[in-house]
Amino acid sequence: MHLYGFLKWSRRIIALAVFAGLTYFFIAFSAKAAGVWSTLLGLQIVPAILGIATGGLVTVLIVLLITLLFGRVYCSLLCPLGIYQDIIYRLGLFIRNKKKRRTRYTKPRNTLRYSILIIVVICVAFSFVLPLVWLDPYGLFGKMAANIGRPLAYVISGSKYDAWNLAAFLVSAAILIALTITAFFKGRLYCNTICPVGTLLGFISRYSIFRIQIDPGSCTHCQLCSMNCKAFCIDAGKPVVDNSRCVVCFNCISKCVKGSVGYRFAWKPGKKALPASEENKPSGGTSRRAFLLAAMGTGAGVVLLNRFTEKKIINIPNAMPPGAGTLDRLKDTCIACHACIAACPAHIIKPAMGAFGWQGFLLPSVSYDNGFCGFDCQKCQEVCPSGALQLMTLEEKKRVKMGVVKLMLENCIVEKFGTDCGACDEHCPVKAVRMTPREGSDKLFPKTTPALCIGCGGCEFICPARPKAIVVLPLSEQRQADEPVIDATINIEVDGFGF
Amino acid sequence: MERRHFLKTAVLGAVAGTVGLKGMKLFASEKTAPGTLPGKDSIPDMVAIMGGEPEQLYARAIQEMGGMSRYIKPGMKVVVKPNIGWDKSPEYAACTNPLLVGAIVKDCLAAGASEVKVFDHTCDHWRGCYENSGIQEAVKKAGGEMANAHEERYFRETELPMALRMKKPKIHEALLECDAWINVPVLKNHGGARMTLCMKNYMGIVWDRRFMHSNDLQQCIADAATFEKRPVLNIVDGYRIMTQNGPKGRSLEDVQTPKALFMSQDIVAVDTAATQFFNQFSAMTLEDASHILLAEKHQLGTTKLDSLNIKRIRL
Question: pTM for the whole thing?
């Protein structure tokens, strides 16, 4: 019993630490700990699957292996959305009348959850990740933390939050309210009916080596375990645990007075090892097969529909963060977890509204209204867990062309009023715009070299002219800017002060 | 206390007089005995010094100027305003040398300042500027504190009665509340203002940069310098200077290291001197950096260096 108490408390402590860490990251990101954050974010399974070619493979293998060994501990320990629901359910237990607590077993909604999983798998296999933008638990958590928690923290500290976005806030708030209500009353309902990660790991957990099981010999069917199950997966009448929904929280074990419930080595080769639960029998009726087929058909249909309706967008009103590559690539790998939005010190990354088409809603987009991309900064790339913003060397990042400069000299202060300005030249890190003398004038005028421009937006941000005299035209395909031509080194020695 | 001060000054003055410091215009190679401060009469209008490390340059220059206690009295709230405009490390000369800033902060505290605040309204993202310029670390080590200047709420509208174009800028609260401030720019060329020196450094005390850029930049810079609380000292950091691609700079090729420093109470004079010094590296006239001439029209100082008692020192 002591072992189980230890396991339960270890789970609670780790889960709370992970939850607090991730929440803190999204709300009060500090650049100093970028390494810690990226490790923490790197453990999330969905981004790891999407970034399997760019460093996600290790995480995927580890999570699958752990699930195969111990069941859905991932859902209990590492999934921030799962932990949030646990916290809410736990609070609910304090608030609700204890006498009303009864047997809490519900039948699994297998058709629904496997259909969702199949649709998602087919979509992702064909590089259509939109369903994950709205279903991945980590992505949903990120959206809520970045669009509700973060602005709130800024309001409390009295600072201005430049990446504030009302639509993203409302969408996140709706998700948060819905999840809070279901978690309060129904525990991990989301995880066990909708969440594709929960369904996938649940499927594996049916075969896991260690499982929570009830010894039918000593069980008195007292329902204590079932009453304390937040996954509603213990049918104490039989008595049997549905391991595909169990998140291995150990609550049932510590509640059982008879010691019937245990976490046991349960691996037996062959399908006979499956629990005898009706719902879990693999050979269902024809209606179920039909359903699964229908799900596959829906998945394929969604993919095809997307392929045919998607227009190739060339001109985008907002740039993509550095390292996104092409708009298609961004849509194929980004689940809009908004980690980049939280990490951007300049607050220039904001949730896209219509800039990237309807499938690109809430994907990270860049706007230069309140700032520009720091030349020596690549925090967005460092934290991006799915590799949608490809991490590269800083030297490479300094030449990623997110957009290209466009000068409208007729709006320029120097041209219009004949007074000095040079704000664009001042901000340009690569000298793609330079103040240049002109014959017949003692003033300097901006002159651009678009091939050098990286589209950081410094010039557009600072240009004091209205309308702006210099802007960045976003590119839907990021390129490499030309390497700046560095002037020759000349060391000038002076003897006197010159006056 | 008054009398004691007077006596001390008199004695020091006498000492300095005998050593022959007074009115010296040649390159001084003689060293003033360490710790001895020159008398009131022998304090030059400007010190130009070359050939040492930042702290050495500063220590000698401030000694020639009569020591920090001449400018900072016990209990004063002090602001030191360096140029921290860019997210660049010290060797790029985009920001004031952190060693110099640290030495000044330390000296102010030693002179009895009750607090020393350091800030700049940066161009690049402020956190990167404060950290990578090395200034934040140097200031904290010296016992000063960094003040935030990245949001409008830290600035308050202030009237500049003498100004021609920028009459009501928002100026940083730390500066409005302090008893004395020291202006410490780094010597750089500038694509817009042509030179960025002591007066251009005022852009970092003002919130609305775009207003200045769009309303005759040179005049606005001169207007800013009419802010009635004048710096007690203007110190131009010429240890590393940026001679091209300023004010941000692109690579180390933009940087020269003449190891110089200029110190004066006359902001126009010190900017004139620094411009003429810069002219040795890359052609520059006062007509180009015309805010210096406009400031002279505002009677903030003189560009006629010949009329001044300048102490030139080579270490």
Answer: 0.87
